[in-house]
Amino acid sequence: MKVINKQILIQVSVWAATVAILLYVFRIPDQTIDAIELQLLLLLENLAFAEIKYLIPVFIHAIPFFIFIMLTGTFVREEILNKGVFIFTRVQNRSRWTFSILMQLLVFTICYVSVLFIALILILLVTKSSSSVQHFTSLGIIYTLYILFYFVIALFSNLLAVMLNSQLSYLITSFIYMFNIFVAGFFNQVLGDLTLLKWLPVSQGIITWHESTYFTSVFHRYTINDFTFSISYLYLVIIIILLFYCFLRKIDKMELY
Length: 257
Hints:
Blueprint: H1 6-26, H2 36-45, H3 55-72, H4 75-90, H5 94-126, H6 136-164, H7 169-191, H8 213-216, H9 229-253
Helix pairs in contact: 1-3, 1-5, 2-5, 3-6, 3-7, 4-5, 5-6, 5-9, 6-7, 6-9
């Protein structure tokens, strides 16, 4: 793997901690819930379908997404612009270089999600809003799905940036993300049917919309029937493979900007 861009790594870490503080300020924890994993979801995802028609709850929900995509959404394009002459004239195996760059994106994603979770957990412990993890498997599901979902976001935005040769890709990705959420609100308010929502890309990264005996006990207002975690894992892994393939094909055939 190429040397990790330490500047972006630091920015990602600092902003993740900042986002954790903002979420705690905007969303006061439920003092009746002791489990850290449930409090995490209340801070990260407290978005019922009936609230989607209001802009402020949706905006607060999307804060972690906006910050992450702003930091990483055009990373690959910037690498090409800065090192394009070297890449396109001296690198013999572009696929290996592309894979290395995408692995850097994965590292940024893991760093962002990890710092965000650790900061939120520390805040919950310090403020005595929660005292312990009661279901480690559920915490692991939240953590891994967030990494997969945010990695898909990063890959998609960066692929757009390379294909369009534009820094506006993160704005396009943000629009698509928000549009997906408001489509979910439309399905709930107008059609009254949530079944199809489990196939929306944005739904895969919202844990509380999944059907789970443990989570549903608290987030029953949010659940989509038959929307299991296995669906999202498979969905996200397939998208990651497709985006990797598109990236490899694009970089292998492209010329210097």
